[in-house]
Amino acid sequence: MSNYNELDDGLEIVSLKSPETPKRSRLFSLEPVGIGTSQTESLSSYVNRLAEAHCVKSQKLIMLEIAPQILGKDYQSPLHSKDVSSLFGNTDAKPALNGMRDMKLLLVQALEKLTQRQDLKYLTCLSWKEVINKRGLFRQYRAWCPQCYEQCKQDKVSLYDPLLWSFKDVKFCLHHQCQLVDECPKCGSHLPVIANFLPLGHCFYCGEWLGDNKNKNPKCNFKNFPESLLIIKNIGDLIAVTPRLGSQPTLDEFIQKLQLILFCFEKVISQDLKHIKVLGKIIEHLKLNLSQHGDKPLNLIKIIIPVCSKAHISVSELFLEDLTGLSKILFDNFQINYQLPIL
């Protein structure tokens, strides 16, 4: 918008109004890595990189800058002498930082206020807390790909941990086709989520570099691990699709979609009994969960991913499509000639 008006006689009137400037953030507005992809950065990794950018340890950043935003009037300065677990109220901060606990929302809100960013919720699984059971889903300690760390070092780019690595059932790095590591190769320690050690990528306890420049971590043949590959790809799909959600998935709508899938399974078996061998077990499992746990979030690994696999749909299709769109995909997959009733 121009700051002056041109008059017919050629004179200019200059506006004396000061231009609007964006609000300054207290902390650096550090850009997250990989949003909208399966390699989206985890919130814990973002906190670690933000601390490194400010040349302070992560714990100090959390307790002196983030904690006051979360606790408000309840915050007392001596609190910073305690560890991060005292803030989150659990023995390890990992599930709280990368999981779905209530404290996570407060942490995201505090960080977004301090950095003036609006996209940090995508570094979490908060969007899925109504439909996915959090129990046993996340690791208690860090896991990483040594070859990814080494590649970041060689390429001189920011070292970060994808949210994908936070899931307990993700055991491999698809990019380097190797197993993730969850303990220091030198001292054997399990590492906490908060990297209270500078520079990043080193052991919290002994200082050992955690990258692999000697290819000590051998490649895996994923043909021997088809189930693991299926889990990794679907969790990656779930992470990637999060920013595209129009709204947070609700349990009621999710259950309706699962009931639609169950209908398709039973319909295709009624047309040809040979399908019972493939679909019989998943039908029984799905029915049991819908009847006994239909009012609670469902297990991602044991229910949601296997159901999507048997229905020949992706996790993103399950959550992005409405009932009409999903029915068209399912009816086409199973060659079902059926018209959903108009609600």
Give structural notes:
- The chain is mainly alpha-helical.
- Among the domains are: 86 residues, no CATH class; 84 residues, no CATH class.
- The chain contains twelve helices and four strands; from the N terminus they run E-E-H-H-H-H-H-H-E-E-H-H-H-H-H-H.
- Strand 1 and strand 2 form a beta hairpin.
- The mean pLDDT is 87.
Q: Helices and strands, in N-to-C order?
A: EEHHHHHHEEHHHHHH
Strand order of the largest sheet: 1-2
Low-confidence stretches: none
Distance between the termini: 48 Å
Strand content: under 5%
Radius of gyration: 24 Å
Shape: globular
**Helix/strand-derived class?**
mainly alpha
Mean pLDDT: 87
Helix content: 40-55%
The total strand number stands at 4
Number of helices: 12
> Major beta sheet, specifics?
2 strands, antiparallel
InterPro entries: TniQ
Keywords: Plasmid
Protein name: TniQ domain-containing protein
Organism: Gloeothece verrucosa (strain PCC 7822) (Cyanothece sp. (strain PCC 7822))
Blueprint of the fold:
Elements: E1 4-6, E2 12-14, H1 43-53, H2 58-71, H3 84-88, H4 94-98, H5 102-115, H6 146-155, E3 172-173, E4 178-179, H7 226-241, H8 251-271, H9 276-293, H10 300-311, H11 315-320, H12 323-333
Helix pairs in contact: 1-2, 2-5, 8-9, 8-12, 9-10
What key phrases describe this protein's structure?
two-stranded antiparallel sheet, 343 residues, two-stranded antiparallel ribbon, mainly alpha
In short:
This is TniQ domain-containing protein. It contains 12 helices and 4 strands; from the N terminus they run E-E-H-H-H-H-H-H-E-E-H-H-H-H-H-H.
